[in-house]
Amino acid sequence: MADMTKLNEELKAKARVIRVQAKNPLELVQAQFLARGASGIKGVQRRFRIMDDDGNRKLNFEEFSKGIHEVGVVLNKEQEIELFRFFDRDGEGTIDFEEFLRTIQPQMNDRRRKLVEAAFVKMDNTGDGTVTVKDIANAYNAKKHPKYNSGEWSDVKVYQEFLKTFEADGHVDGIVTLDEFISYYASISCSIDSDGYFDLMMRNSWGADLLV
């Protein structure tokens, strides 16, 4: 795991640039979520899923508007309407919020995504698409963390800080899904320009034997 304090500061700096240069409401929203750091989008995901009372994964405009306000997104009414219409491609008056969440999440190129998926598969011994925090602790090399090497953190502290990245609004269920794992590293990826450095970071954390 990289130094999250440094990475989050880099993400916030990049978000400020994106926000200034944003050409449409979607880019404004992406910048606002990016400014929250590597784990910021998970609270947003949880909030929208809670709003899906009937489990149909759809939101009308009123629900959508309420949801983005509750998670702290700042848009005027015209921007909200434009953003909603972007996702309501069939004009039925509802949007698929899973598609919305996937779109606002930072994207990784294929090589980086394959590295992240390989790290997850390495832990997912049952192949059911989930791993426990214990699985992660057994696989993650805390001694590669810069704050462990500097003596600032113990290996236990590194592990505790890593687990916090999978919390959303204070909720911890002890399970990490592939989507959560990808979401975490997608945000980190935004602050790393070099594919080579991203590759090195992943292998230092999860082992040199990652297959891509």
UniProtKB/TrEMBL annotation:
MF-aspect GO terms: calcium ion binding
Recorded superkingdom: Eukaryota
Entry keyword set: Calcium, Metal-binding, Repeat
EF-hand domain: residues covered: 39-74, 75-110, 111-146
Pfam families: EF-hand_7
InterPro entries hit by this protein: Ca-bind, EF-hand-dom_pair, EF_Hand_1_Ca_BS, EF_hand_dom
Name recorded for this polypeptide: EF-hand domain-containing protein
Organism: Arion vulgaris
